[in-house]
Amino acid sequence: MAMKRMKLFRLALATAVAMPLLCLSPADSPDPGQFFKTLSAHDPAQSYPSYDRLLQVVDQIQAMAETTLTAALPDLFAALQSPDDAIAVDAAFALTAVAGRPDSNELLRSHLSEINALLGRSDRRLKATVPTVFLRMQPAPREAVPRLANFLTRNDQSSDAKPDAVFALIKLAPNDPAAIAAIRHFIGLPLDRQTRIDTINALGSSHLTDGGLLDLLARQLADPDQNVRLAAIQTMNRIGRPAVQHASAALTRLANDPAESLQIRQQAQHALALMPQ
């Protein structure tokens, strides 16, 4: 059960696409308000709500009347604040569905402090919920950028969900000086291998035009870890010509280095093909 929930939640955060999960008749579907109320009052001695019922509730959120969903939100946020991570993660999954509604800004703007508080939780999935929700809200709240930038620069927070914040900031505010400064600060830290790779991948957007960040990305091509070098090249391919121009000399070296892996050489050649002839 726990593994299914984890896979489902990761899928929701990775795709962030609002779509029905199940085809259910109204008679088969649990009442979302009652589900959230039960979830928020969960007794640790009892079993958790079933995986299927969670899916059924999430499936209804897009079509729910605004008044009905508004009435259910206090119980959803009560569950979100549960010290039991399993309960909070279920509520967070439902919250990402709420954030995908066209009226999500109106529904959630009075709950931004409660959403932001998830950045202080120990569970990576709960922290990653915050940038996901901010990205999906329509429109994104103006508080999103400073809150995510602050999260990146805080040294009292673990780094495991910070690449998610980098990805959101690149999408939401690619030219915001405070956001760019926060990203530069984070990338400059001595990150572990996987966090560095995740952060490099998070930069892979055509929205990225900041020369300083492109220079930082180019410097990753000299990293001794070939997986870091490969992630940097693949990210440049996603960004496009501006990134390739910043690193053309290093890419040319990698493309022609017989000591490099075939994959790195091929990816470097692909990047160089983006340059004007």
Structure, described:
With 277 residues, the chain is mainly α. It has a domain at 1-14 and 54-137. Helices cover 64% and strands 0% of the residues. The chain has helices at residues 2-15, 32-40, 51-61, 66-80, 85-99, 104-108, 112-116, 124-136, 144-153, 162-172, 177-187, 193-202, 211-219, 226-239, 241-246, 248-255, 262-272. Helix 1 (2-15) packs parallel to helix 5 (85-99), helix 8 packs parallel to helix 10 and helix 9 (144-153) packs antiparallel against helix 10 (162-172). The protein is elongated, with a radius of gyration of 21 Å. The model is unreliable at 1-8 and 14-27 (pLDDT under 50).
Report the sheet-strand fraction.
under 5%
Low-confidence stretches are: 1-8, 14-27
Beta strands, count: 0
Integer-rounded radius of gyration:
21 Å
Oligomer: single chain
How would you state the average pLDDT, rounded?
89
The level of helicity is 55-70%
Distance between the termini: 55 Å
Protein structure class: mainly alpha
Shape: elongated
The run of helices and strands is: HHHHHHHHHHHHHHHHH
> Largest sheet, described in full?
none
Number of helices: 17
Describe the SSE topology.
Blueprint lengths: L1 H14 L16 H9 L10 H11 L4 H15 L4 H15 L4 H5 L3 H5 L7 H13 L7 H10 L8 H11 L4 H11 L5 H10 L8 H9 L6 H14 L1 H6 L1 H8 L6 H11 L5
